[in-house]
Specification:
The structure is a homodimer. By secondary structure, the first copy, chain A, is of the alpha/beta class. The first copy, chain A, has helices spanning about 5-25, 30-40, 45-50, 65-75, 90-100, 100-105, 135-140, 155-165, 190-210, and strands spanning about 30, 65, 80-85, 105-115, 125, 125-130, 145-150, 170-175, 185-190. In chain A, strand 7 (about 145-150), helix 8 and strand 8 form a beta-alpha-beta unit.
DNA sequence: TGATGTGAAGTATTTCACAGCA
DNA sequence: TGCTGTGAAATACTTCACATCA
C-alpha cells in the first residue's frame, strides 16, 4: 500500500467526525457524495482519500458507516486512549486541562508541568502540577506520548528539546515560535494570531478588489 | 502581479513573526537562508514566497528587515487594527477574550454575544455581553470584520448563517463542525481534537513501522 | 443499475539551478 | 562576489472519467 498523502491524513479526522454524526442519525450506509457534503469537499476527493486506506466501500452501495468509523479510528491509532501531558500551566494550559473534548476522544491528560513554585504541588481536576525539573522523569513515568506545549515563547524551544530528548515524538505547539525538532518528531503548530492574520489577508484582498 | 498561492499566504504570518524577532535582535538585514532557518523552511521557498509580493530584496545583500516587516504587514492588512467579535461566550470564548496576544497584534475584541440570560448584560474586560438576539444589529453597529465562532456545535451552522447574512466575511471556527458558507466568505477551522488525531496517526505509523 | 476504485489528466506547490544585478 | 528573482523541472495533490463489480 502506498503512503497516505499528508493532506489526506489531515482530512481523516474530519471524515471520522462526519461518520460519527451519520451514525448518530442512524444512517447505516453513506456514499462518497454524502460524506463529501458533510465534510465540505467533493465525492472524488473522498473516494481517493479512502482508497489509500484500502477498498472500504461496496460498489453500487457506498460505505458502511460503522465499519468505516472502525477503520479510520484504527488508522488514526484511536483504538486505545493516548497519554498526554501539558507543559506550561498558564491560562491556556489551564483551559486545555478543563476541556472535556479531549478525554471524550480518547486523549487523557495525565500530567502537568510548570516552573512556577506557587503552582507546583497543587492539584487541578485530579492532576497534580509537577515541577519542570521533573520533566524528563515525569514524562517517562507517565508514559507520555503527546505533549501540549504551552510555555512562554522564549523558553519553548529549550523545553521542546527536553521533551524530545525524553522520547516524546508528538507535540502540539501553542507557543508562537517555529520549533526545530529532529526527523521523526511531529509538531503541529496552533497559533491563533497566524489564523487571524490569514483571515486579515483575505479581508485586505477583498476590499482592495472591490 | 500573479495571485499569491494559498500556501504562501499561510507562511506570511510566520515570516512576519520571525522578522519582528530579527528586528528585536537589531538585525538590519536578513537573507533568505536566515529567514528560512527561523521559519523552518528553505531559502528557495522564502525567495519564491516573497517574490509574489514584489522585488523586495537586494541582490548580493538580502532583505531589509524593517522594510520587509512593513511590506508584509501591509499585505496582511495589519496597518489598522481589526474589529473582532466573539460569538458564544462559554469557557473557550472567555479564554479568548482574556488572551492579550490578539490586541497586541491589532485584533481588538469589541463585542461578545451569548444566548445565556445569566451572562447577558454582564461585563468582562470592559466588553459587555450582548444577547444573541442582537447579533445582526450588534455586528453592524460595531463594524465587525472577523467573528470568533465558539458556540456549541449543534448551533454553529445556524449562527454562522446569521453572521454571514450580517455581512461578516471572515470566521475563525472553533466549533467541531464543517461550516457551509457562500463564496467570498473565508472560514479557518481551529479544532484541537483534529490536531491530536493527526499526531496520533503519525504515532500509530511509527510504532507500526518500527 | 449505481457507486466505488483508480489510471490519467489537470493544477498547485516546491525545489532546482542559474541569470541578473548591487 | 554573493544573494535575489525566476523560468523550468520535479513533486504533490486534486479532479476527471470510466472500467469494474456488487
Amino acid at each position: 500500500m502506498d503512503r497516505v498523502p499528508e493532506q489526506t491524513i489531515n482530512r481523516l479526522p474530519i471524515y471520522l467526525r462526519c461518520l460519527v454524526q451519520a451514525a448518530s442519525l442512524n444512517m447505516p450506509v453513506i456514499n462518497s457524495l454524502g460524506l463529501a457534503q458533510m465534510a465540505g469537499t467533493n465525492a472524488a476527493q473522498v473516494r481517493k482519500d479512502l482508497s489509500y486506506l484500502g477498498e472500504l466501500g461496496t460498489r453500487g452501495i457506498g460505505y458502511d458507516v460503522e465499519a468505516l468509523i472502525a477503520h479510520i479510528s484504527g488508522e488514526l491509532g484511536l483504538t486505545a486512549s493516548r497519554r498526554v501531558a501539558i507543559v506550561g500551566f498558564g491560562r491556556l494550559g489551564g483551559s486545555l486541562l478543563g476541556y472535556s473534548g479531549f478525554s471524550e476522544r480518547g486523549f487523557d491528560i495525565v500530567a502537568v508541568f510548570d516552573a512556577d513554585p506557587a503552582k507546583i504541588g497543587t492539584s487541578v481536576g485530579g492532576v497534580r502540577v509537577r515541577s519542570i525539573d521533573e520533566l524528563e522523569s515525569g514524562l517517562a513515568e507517565e508514559a507520555i506520548e503527546i505533549v501540549l506545549l504551552t510555555t512562554p515563547a522564549d523558553v519553548a524551544q529549550a523545553v521542546a528539546d527536553r521533551v524530545v530528548a525524553a522520547g516524546v515524538c508528538a507535540i502540539l505547539n501553542f507557543a508562537p515560535v517555529t520549533l526545530d525538532v529532529p526527523d521523526g518528531v511531529k509538531v503541529r503548530p496552533v497559533d491563533l494570531s497566524v489564523e487571524l492574520q490569514v483571515l486579515s489577508f483575505h479581508l485586505a484582498r477583498m476590499t482592495q478588489e472591490a
